[in-house]
Amino acid sequence: MYGCEAWTISKQIQDKLEATEMWFLRRMLQIPWTAKKTSERVLNEANKRRSLVRTIRKRQATFLGHVMRRGKLEHLVTTGKFEGKRSRGRQREKITDGLATWLGPGRVTETLTDVKDWDLWRDIIANAYKQGT
Q: Are 39 and 57 in a shared domain?
């Protein structure tokens, strides 16, 4: 989990993280792989409320808020506003793209302006974390 603030999580990586998390839970609860228990039943046995992916998204959002409030070189890099030519091929996923999938489409530009108000940003993160998006 160290350094997860800078990860870009695609759908494929998210699926792998969820599968690994389920594997960890089954190992901790000592459920053999031959047992026919669904993932929902394992989650109920673990009384699990938080997801690994949701925790990573929350950390990313708090880190993004920190970077955006500082307004230095990291701010330029995360928003993609630096000089130079674009590289060939498919463009890499940015941290703001991951934020858009977590907070919902079309909310990134308005939330990036809300970053300056620390209390408002904290409330936005808490609401998104509670909703489980």
A: no
